[in-house]
Amino acid sequence: MKTDIEIKNDVLDELAWQPNVDENEIGVVVENGTVMLTGVLDNYRKKVAAEEAVKRVKGVKALAGDIQVRYGTSFQKTDVEIAKAIVKAFEWNTAVPEDKVSIEVRDGWVNLSGEVDSAFQKDAAARVVKNITGLKWVNNVITIKQAILPVDVKEQIAKAFKRSADIEADGITVEVHEDVVKLKGKVHSLTEKKAAQKTAYFSPGVYRIENELEVVD
């Protein structure tokens, strides 16, 4: 099992490996496998890239991010400009039903609401928004109207895990309780944990997922 010092060094190395992230702008603290990031970045995509980099490090059990985003004057956008950019991005992305998603922007903070048919569509909306210049934060409260279909859901997800090269399916169990899918077991990284959740989202009929997978060395 890695020590906190070893995890911190690996996190710093992974941050340095990212072409659009300056590791010197980010503070890293590790306690019992939980990584805390602090600092101020000039781009929301850098914040996302830094957090994704940490999740790829083996031994990281949880991530607590407190990175702030402050754009320079040349990249600052008004709330109206951000909202228009999001609307256009939704129009170009076939995974997002733009007529079902409401957009609210206040001081660079974006709130997404509405009702869509699947968890995949909800996540797609958030992914599209993350690429918008001027963005400071995304709050995704879109709901899913389709209740989970109990027939074959567990089997579909289990088969999807076995097809994935990024997931050790034997260490994961899938439980279905009414409208909730629970993932339990052990994985070797936050990336694998996230991959399992993402794979489960693609299954037809999935309404909500509780990811209780434990990250172990």
TrEMBL record:
UniProt entry tagged with the keyword Secreted: no
Keyword Signal: yes
Keyword field: Signal
Leader peptide range in chain numbering: none
Domain of life, source organism: Bacteria
InterPro entries: BON_dom, Lipoprotein_DolP, Transpt-assoc_nodulatn_dom_bac
Pfam families: BON (PF04972)
Domain (BON): residue spans on this chain: 3-71, 78-146, 149-217
Gene3D superfamilies: 3.30.1340.30
PANTHER family: BON DOMAIN-CONTAINING PROTEIN, OUTER MEMBRANE LIPOPROTEIN DOLP
Protein name as catalogued: BON domain-containing protein
Naturally occurring in which organism (per UniProt): Bizionia gelidisalsuginis
Lineage, uppermost ranks: Bacteria, Pseudomonadati, Bacteroidota, Flavobacteriia, Flavobacteriales
